[in-house]
Each structure stands twice: as C-alpha cells, then as structure tokens.
From TrEMBL:
The lineage of its organism: Bacteria, Pseudomonadati, Pseudomonadota, Alphaproteobacteria, Rhodospirillales. It comes from the Bacteria. GO terms for molecular function: NADP binding; oxidoreductase activity; proton-translocating NAD(P)+ transhydrogenase activity. The transhydrogenation between NADH and NADP is coupled to respiration and ATP hydrolysis and functions as a proton pump across the membrane. This is NAD(P) transhydrogenase subunit alpha part 1.
Length: 272
C-alpha cells in the first residue's frame, strides 16, 4: 500500500466494499464467496467415497451423508443449499444468532451454545465478533460431540482483519470416521482446521481428508470472472461521469470505504 502511495497511484480495495444496499452489486466478497461455498460442496462430494443422498434399492439402502457447515456467511449459506440439494443431512453453526433462521429456512439444523454472549455476538455491520475464551470452550465441547457423527465438514469462518479462528482441532479430526472429508475455505487466512495446509490435501492417520485449496473461486474460474467483472463495472458507475469522464467523489461513502491511497498518501484507516 505504501508503494502505491509513493508512486502517486490512487488505489482502491474491492474487499473493503461497505455492506450497504447501494454497494451490493459491487460486493466482490459476496459474489466470490457464493461460488466458493458451492464449489466446496462439489469438491467434498468428489473427495468423499460414498453417495450424498439416501438411496433405497433392491440391493440395500445407502445412508445419506451428514454435512456440517461451520460459519454461515455467504459461502456457508450456499454450501448448506448445495449440500441439501445433493441429498445430505445438513447442520450448521455460527456465532451470530441472526443466521439461525436462515439455516433452518434452507433445511438445515442449527448447532450452537445459545447463551447471552451468543445473542449479542454480531457487529452493527453484520460481521461476527470475537468470542470469549469461555464461550469458545463451551462451543468446542458441543462441536466435539457433533463432529464425530459427520461425514463432511466445510469451514468458512473469517474475522475481518484477523487470523481465521481454529474451529476444528486435531482431536476433533481424530474422532471422525475414516473417509470423512474436511474442506477449509479459510486456509489462506491461517485456516479453521488444525492441520490444514495451503494448497494441499492432507490425509490423516485415521483416514480423514483435510482439503486446503488456495483461491477457491479460481476453481470455478469462468463464473468467478463473470461476477467479478460485473462487480467492477458497477464500481465504474461510481468513479465515472458520462460528461466529465473519470471523476472521483472522495466524499462518497463507497469511495471512502474502499480508498487505500490518494494523492501520494495512505488514507485507509487499516493502513494509515
């Protein structure tokens, strides 16, 4: 960022797009996370050695897969919907109480320690807050019991500006059944799964796969490029005037939120 300023470049960061109605069409994090959630389930189905839906045949019954989605943002909601459409029994967890109804509306069950801290665990911007150590212990105990029964776990939990929280410990992984699959969508920010490795698929001693693909939207590149291009085109309507050409209104709330550098200075509070 400093190099941009020194070079006199006016730089903007799409990932800082504010969560306001006018900016929804420019929200690159949402457009890309939506694809990542879908692709994570498709990849999990490929890595998993059994069928997703229940199948009742003359030769016997194939039980449905159990999928557990950890983190119910845009990626998590799409993962729930996709896993449900493929026939899995889906459950999900998040520290934000508002998403419980969303999970249930998609046909999933909600798993969380629902105490007072949980009921207040959301920022005004709709993001997750950092939880206390005591809450984390209670939630970990609940997850430990739940995760033993799961075939597929997809983790999507991120905290803006912070390292991704560990949601699945080595002990959790060791308790899972052989052939189970974990997809860590937060691996680029440090990972939600203990033992996940960026760009690698790790197979544990008990036969559990931990998948840590980098840049998940690139795994469905044509769709990702299409949506990203539309995000950028929408942003140009803010930065361009049909009569004056490129005209940046530095007082616009969208411009204020995404501006990194201006006239040789770093202006974003995260870097200033």
């Amino acid at each position: 960022v400093k190099a941009y300023a020194e070079a006199g470049v006016n730089a903007f960061a799409m990932e800082f797009m504010p969560r306001i109605t006018r900016a929804q069409v420019m929200d690159v994090l949402s457009s890309q996370a939506n694809l990542a959630g879908y692709k994570a389930v498709v990849d999990a189905a490929s890595e998993y050695g059994r069928a997703f839906p229940m199948m009742m045949t003359a030769a016997g019954t194939v039980p449905p897969a159990r999928a557990f989605i950890m983190g119910v943002g845009v990626a998590g909601l799409q993962a729930i919907a996709t896993a449900k459409r493929l026939g899995a029994i889906v459950s999900a967890t998040d520290v934000r109480p508002a998403v419980k109804e969303q999970v249930q509306s998609l046909g999933g069950s909600f798993v969380a320690v629902e105490n007072d801290e949980f009921r207040q665990a959301e920022t005004a911007g709709g993001y997750a807050k950092e939880m206390s150590d005591d809450y984390k212990r209670q939630q970990a105990a609940l997850v430990a019991e739940h995760i033993k029964k799961q075939d597929l776990v997809i983790t999507t939990a991120l905290i803006p500006g912070r390292k991704a929280p560990i949601l699945v410990t080595a002990e959790h992984v060791a308790s899972m059944k052989p052939g189970s699959v974990l997809i860590d969508l937060a691996v680029e920010q440090g990972g939600n799964v203990e033992g996940s490795k960026l760009g690698e698929t790790v197979v544990t001693a008990n036969g559990v796969k931990i998948v840590g693909h980098a840049n998940y939207p690139s795994r469905i590149a044509e769709s990702a490029s299409l949506l990203y291009a539309k995000n950028l085109l929408a942003l140009l309507t803010v930065l361009h005037d049909k009569d004056k050409g490129v005209t940046v209104n530095w007082d616009d709330e969208i411009v204020k939120a995404i501006a990194l550098t201006r006239d040789g200075a770093v202006v974003h509070p995260a870097f200033a």
